[in-house]
Amino acid sequence: MRVAFLGLGIMGSRMAANLRDAGHELVVWNRTRSRADAFGGAVAATPAEAAAGAEVVVTMVVDGPQVESVLLGDGGAAHGAAEGTLVVDMSTIGPTAARAIGAALGERGLRFVDAPVTGSSPKAEAGTLTIMAGGAAEDVDRARPLFEAMGETIVHAGELGHGQMVKLLNNAVAVANAIALGQALLAGRATGVDLDALVAVMGAGSAGSAMLDLKAGPMRSHDYATLFKTEHMLKDVRLCLEETQAAGVPFPAAADAREILSAAVGRGHGADDFAAVIEVLEGLAGARL
Known about the structure:
By secondary structure, this protein is an alpha/beta fold. The chain has helices spanning 10-21, 33-39, 47-51, 64-72, 95-106, 120-126, 137-150, 162-190, 195-204, 210-221, 230-246, 252-269, 277-285; strands at residues 2-6, 25-29, 42-43, 56-59, 86-89, 111-114, 117-118, 129-134, 151-158.
């Protein structure tokens, strides 16, 4: 398929590489041109130029305003894409923004699927992401060959915006889990428990989780090499709370996570992996792992 891929950050560059390796014909664009040049292949000067002649336009940027700008702003992809082109946004922007962008694209004769991902950079590189898609079934089916090159688990979550909502809920649970893990590690240290034993038992029992596998080691070593930025997780949790509050449903675990993440960003860890929440938890406990 002829694909315009817009956004070559930590996740996007790996996802685009898997599309290229699967034989799809890519034209790439990135806000910082040097990153696109380093990726290689056909590089467009604007999103509109990238979208010209593309069957599918894929966006992978930071937030709703960036997606709107890349697709609908001056030089945006919607100005270069032919009628009937499928646009797939794989960023995390929330369902409200996804539906608004989808409506604006529809007025221009373009199709739209929201398809955020989870799995962080290792799974993006391996092509084993989980992809949750929202939109019309025929549009999701049309994008499926691309999804299969980038992901291992592909779920049609429902109508447009539902992929976004599933992603936000997933991330809120993930970071709440990571925060509970950090608290447990600190409690174990304070009570003299062997942390290797604690991690081994949790991993073999009902406390086992992806967060245990991914974050226990970095928290203990204070290694915040970025798999998923703290500031991006904060953005996702804020979006989740906006949607759940509008629905009249409390989500106190997510609200607590928002405060811990806000404090981590305030301590200068916004660009670090969200394992850096341990810094805030250590401050609250007056102890260090």
